[in-house]
Design brief:
The protein is of the alpha+beta class and 401 residues long. It has a domain at 2-47 and 61-67 and 97-175 and 278-360: FAD/NAD(P)-binding domain (3-Layer(bba) Sandwich). Helix content is 37%, strand content 26%. The protein contains 13 helices and 20 strands. It has helices spanning 12-23, 51-57, 60-66, 103-116, 166-171, 229-238, 244-255, 257-262, 307-324, 326-330, 335-364, 367-379, 383-390, and strands at 2-8, 28-31, 45-46, 73-78, 81-86, 99-100, 120-122, 126-133, 136-143, 146-157, 184-192, 200-206, 209-215, 221-228, 267-268, 273-275, 281-282, 286-287, 290-292, 298-299. The strands form 4 sheets. Strands 1, 2, 7, 8, 9, 10, 18 and 19 form an 8-stranded mixed β-sheet that branches. A hairpin with a 2-residue loop joins strand 12 (200-206) and strand 13. Helix 1 runs parallel beside helix 9, helix 6 (229-238) packs across helix 7 (244-255) and helix 9 packs antiparallel against helix 11 (335-364). The longest helix is centred in the last third of the chain and has 30 residues, at 335-364. The protein is globular.
Length: 401
């Protein structure tokens, strides 16, 4: 059998692509290396701009039933400063506010919907090799019980930016850079018993890094952050603890009065997760008949809390174009046109927020810059609302043609 599309990776981007194509009648195969449900290093917030997409996918109801409270305010916890301002609003049937849901729930929800729509699933399996064929591509997959080969007319890579797959690195044009002291490493934990206001999502600013908190499902607060490799090493020496995440948390609490107040009664629920280094920036969006969605195509610094929304919206941008040109795609004629159109739409929707996120990260990981900026933010706290606008909190994924 030759599938219309082979999707590698079943996170929000891959599952969204699988669900959209399967609902449109495509034969779809999905390869996912991890067994679900599984936790993931992620801030877990989804902007209101993606709620209409959840409606289109048919999963908005289950998402809203389980997700945390509406996030109506954006905040800043830096040094002794605690600020908040209104979150930008969007219009839609599901309301103007974003919400958060644990990745173990969100990813399973989307993938289960894709399978119900007709997508074939190989899980847990790894894609070990991808090679061209006369009809498209042949992918070798491996699991604990053996290996197999799947053929497809096109491939959608949704493997994330931390993939170690050789074929994915080659398709993206080379190896990852060597480790550097300035690399940002990501940490994430769930907390219970927090005093964080239910409607507030604050940015945490501390020497050598940044982070955020948001109320997720089941009364949990998600704490996620990025910290420089050299700052992490210093924190581990200063706070000798069994896990690096605990040292990071002590570093945050020592730096942010707002975090100390919000987490004074909190306790960790489950283990720390860690990953990285993160590689923000814009990468290839397509090559021949391989299309990239999610973080492997490009990612913003997590400081703007747009990772899930960008992943799902990038899959939406691509699949809308593939579906519109289905006959041409099946005949092998439309890949360059679809790829170029998709890349242009991706740039229009995401490039500005990636650049804004880079500026925010540059400023807030430098204590001297933060100290200089705080008096301005105290005088004009609605600057936080403007910053949320720049990060894409009100940017609907309009499919302009």
């Amino acid at each position: 059998m030759i599938y219309d599309a082979l999707i590698i990776g079943a996170g929000p981007a891959g599952a969204t692509a699988a669900l959209m194509l399967a609902k449109a009648g495509w034969s779809v195969a999905v390869i996912e290396k991890e067994q679900f449900p599984r936790r993931k290093v992620c801030g877990e917030f989804m902007s209101a701009t993606s709620l209409p997409l959840l409606d289109e996918l048919g999963v908005a109801g289950p998402f809203c039933e389980r997700a945390g409270p509406d996030v109506r305010r954006v905040g800043l916890f830096a040094q002794q400063t605690v600020l908040s301002a209104t979150m930008p609003q969007t219009t839609g049937l599901r309301g103007p506010w974003g919400r958060a849901l644990g990745r173990e729930h969100l990813d399973t929800l989307l993938l289960d919907a894709a399978v119900r729509a007709g997508a074939a699933l190989w899980q847990p399996c790894c894609a070990t090799e991808l090679r061209r064929s006369p009809d498209g591509y042949v992918c070798t997959i491996a699991s604990r019980v053996g290996s197999a080969q799947l053929a497809a007319r096109l491939v959608i890579a949704a493997t994330g930016s931390w993939t170690r797959n050789d074929w994915a690195r080659r398709a993206q044009g080379g190896e990852a850079p060597a480790h550097r002291p300035s690399d940002l490493l990501a940490f994430k934990a769930h907390l219970e018993g927090s005093d964080l206001p239910a409607d507030l999502m604050p940015l945490l600013v501390f020497a050598g890094g940044y982070g955020g908190m948001v109320h997720s499902d089941a009364g949990r607060v998600t704490l996620s952050c990025c910290i420089r490799r050299d700052t992490l090493a210093q924190s581990r020496r200063r706070y000798p603890t069994p896990h690096a995440g605990d040292a990071v948390l002590q570093h945050i609490l020592a730096s942010c009065a707002g975090a100390r107040e919000a987490l004074r009664h909190a306790r960790r629920a489950g283990p720390w997760l860690a990953a990285g280094p993160i590689r923000p920036g814009i990468r290839r969006r397509w090559r021949e008949r391989v299309f990239f969605v999610g973080n492997i195509a490009g990612e913003a610094h997590p400081i703007v809390a747009e990772g899930i929304s960008m992943a799902m919206q990038s899959a939406w941008l691509l699949c809308r174009r593939l579906i519109a040109r289905q006959d041409d795609v099946a005949a092998g004629r439309a890949a360059p046109d679809v790829g170029s159109d998709y890349a242009a739409a991706w740039d229009a929707l995401f490039a500005a927020r990636i650049r804004a996120a880079a500026v925010f990260a540059y400023v807030f990981t430098r204590p001297s810059a933060t100290t200089a900026l705080l008096p301005v933010l105290k005088l004009f706290p609605r600057t936080l609302t403007f910053g949320a606008h720049l990060s894409g909190k009100a940017a609907q994924p309009v499919d302009a043609r």
